[in-house]
Design a protein that fits this description.
Length: about 325
């Protein structure tokens, strides 16, 4: 039976909802194959994060809270994850697919000599073995994957697994001793430059409004796409065409080489629907698109489509939506 260790992800003292999806995956595995899951929180001053993680129904929340863990240096975190996994005899290490887990999880897997599969969107037990499903070729093919070895590491797409309902009884918080002297010292934290985010993160938002090449300038993008997002309390996204043109920052790119999102509503404004873009948003529950070309591929997957010029349709929409 799998013993699962779920890595918590957090920022600015707040647990990220993607951790809930990783816990949802762990619960699904336990329902299919038995076993139990624990959540590991790493960081400094992470009491509130651990308290929030204690409501996902885990057998325990393991808390490694030390000043040396203030910054998520991948070497340090991977070292501790491997140590905790060994101590708890974990056989499955799980994290949400994210920049954080891309940095940390493969290193932990290597230290544990574990097989790893990323971007998992489905799991089942077959003859006592776990079988994972993950998209490949920009989401056009779903691969079914088995991992050899006693220990496995997986990252899971947060849109694919439901966050567990809040458990009435909180999990026990179990402190994990941290010996700063034993942490790897090959990398040292120097500084962090962070842009103050005024809008939600597209990977976590319920609604994402994305703009494409139809938007001619940064000002137009901000006025039309940003304006629409603000009216809807939504996150903002962008196609790669705008990133390449320097109109939007790389951090907004949705798609195969950008962020993967699965919001309740994805509104594509002047985006053609290239497969590389679809790879990042086609799991949205509802897709709406505005495009002046009735034959644009985006309309093939859109639930709602408006054939119109964005420079006319979006101001009209903005006028109709109450500020
Ligand atoms: C390896 C690789 C990885 C890639 N990764 C990504 C990725 O992660 N994300 C991504 O987005 N792309 C990615 N791309 C690029 C992708 O192939 C497309 O080039 C890109 O998505 C096109 O962006 P777009 O839809 O904004 O532009 P276009 O394809 O040029 O489409 C613009 C659309 O706007 C419509 N339009 C124009 N003017 C107006 C108007 N005034 N009103 C209404 N509609 C209008 C047009 O009809 C058209 O459909 C990748 C490509 C490669 C090769």
């Amino acid at each position: 039976m799998p013993q699962i260790l779920v890595l918590a992800e957090h920022a600015h003292g707040v647990l990220k909802p993607a951790t809930g999806a990783a816990a949802g995956f762990a619960r699904q595995v336990c329902a299919a194959a038995g076993g139990a899951f624990e959540i590991l929180v790493l960081g400094a001053g992470v009491g509130p994060v651990a308290a929030a993680a204690a409501h996902y129904g885990a057998a325990a929340v393991l808390v490694a809270d030390a000043p040396a863990l203030q910054e998520p240096l991948a070497d340090n975190y991977a070292h501790l994850i491997a140590e905790v996994a060994r101590a708890r005899t974990a056989t499955l290490i799980v994290a949400a697919s994210s920049t954080f887990s891309k940095d940390v999880l493969p290193r932990a897997a290597a230290l544990l000599d574990a097989g790893m599969v990323s971007d998992v969107v489905g799991v089942q037990a077959e003859a006592g073995e776990l079988v994972f499903r993950r998209p490949i070729f920009a989401g056009n093919v779903i691969a079914t994957v088995r991992l050899a070895g006693a220990i496995k590491a997986v990252s899971v797409r947060s849109g694919a697994f439901a966050i567990p309902p809040k458990a009435e009884i909180a999990s026990n918080l179990t402190p994990v001793p941290v010996n700063p002297g034993a942490l790897p010292s090959r990398a040292a934290f120097v500084s962090r430059e962070e842009k103050a985010a005024t809008r939600p993160d597209p990977t976590e938002a319920r609604i994402v409004v994305s703009g494409g090449r139809a938007l001619k300038t940064s000002e137009d993008f901000e006025r039309l796409v940003g304006g629409l997002a603000d009216r809807l309390g939504a996150a903002v996204g962008s196609s790669r065409a705008l990133v390449d043109a320097g109109i939007t920052p790389n951090s907004l790119q949705i798609g195969q080489t950008g962020k993967i999102v699965a919001p309740d509503l994805y509104l594509a404004v002047g985006i053609s629907g290239a497969i590389q873009h679809l790879a990042g948003m086609k799991d949205a529950k509802v897709i709406a698109a505005i495009n002046k070309d009735a034959d644009a591929p985006i309309f093939e997957i859109a639930d709602y489509g408006l054939v119109a010029d964005v420079y006319a349709a979006v101001p009209e929409l903005l006028a109709k939506l109450k500020p």
